[in-house]
Batch of 2 targets.
Target 1
Amino acid sequence: MFMVINTSEIIKQLNWRYATKEFDTSKKLSNEQLELVFESLRLSPSSFGLQAWKFVVVSDQKLKVKLKPHAWNQSQITDASQIVVLCRLENLDKTYVKKYIEHAANTRGVHLENMKGYEQMILGGMKTKSEGEINEWMSKQVYIALGMLMANCAAVGIDACPIEGFDKKKFDEILELKTLGVTSQVVCAVGFRSNNDKYASMKKVRFDKEDIITLK
Ligand SMILES: Cc1cc2nc3c(=O)[nH]c(=O)nc-3n(C[C@H](O)[C@H](O)[C@H](O)COP(=O)(O)O)c2cc1C
């Protein structure tokens, strides 16, 4: 079997990973590590490949301080190297789908005409859903990117904390997300754990494989 990365190393890193509660404020991601963050998000898979998302990466300390009270004062917001705010589009409409199809056609050197069927399939699928269902569907895609981000960070020893405990409206306001046509869904703080974080050494609470994985 062709193996890019050793499987036992990955499992070791998955055990090493934990939702970091206390970050070391003096440690920042390098440019290379930041690039991994960006590419993990950008290369995440999405339904139909639509990528109905944007990711706002906040390094600015003043902004982080402004956001913190709207995230239950969780220290990760100000202490992590960056906080990534994962957003979905405010509205997924025909224009966006058309833009995506044009981009796909250009990228692959395919005539737009040959992509019409695919475009109609996407639009047809969207027609069967309510606005609320489409928004929820976009939100699910964003969580896939969150998973990719956390797994890749763990693989290279970057700590992370997924954060749902925040006021979306306030984050949208402070980060002026309307101007980007998006709305926040979930946050991920990235950086490096503090030596004082007692959570780092706590045993992982997980059900046994037999309880959650069914082999047929
Ligand atoms: C979508 C999501 C949202 C979460 N929100 C928060 C949060 O707001 N604050 C926090 O400290 N941990 C948050 N967590 C972390 C979980 O509590 C943690 O992942 C879980 O207890 C398992 O522990 P572990 O990740 O350390 O293995 C969140 C996790 C996920 C997946």
Note: The first strand starts at residue 53 and ends at 58.
Target 2
Amino acid sequence: MRLHRLRDTARPPIALTLEGKPVEALRGDTLLTALLAAGAGPLRQSEFGDGARSGFCLMGACQDCWVAVEGLGRVRACATLAEDGMAVRRG
Ligand code: FES
């Protein structure tokens, strides 16, 4: 697990999928928080050939957290709120 929830754990649960597998999240999570807290592991490979990425800056600047969301296209996971029913693919 890359992230561990320390507080605000009483928020309502939501359900999304990553590569078709269920992921539990909490309302108000960013997609990146939801995926990493669920142990999703690397989200993409760097196009510059230097390895797997799972986000770095957490504020929309580094481009290391791109994922694809059905109906939305390619988004930065750290700058996108997770929503119930989202279908996510690694970027
Ligand atoms: S983690 Fe850097 S842009 Fe999302």
Note: Residues 1 and 39 are 4 Å apart (CA to CA).
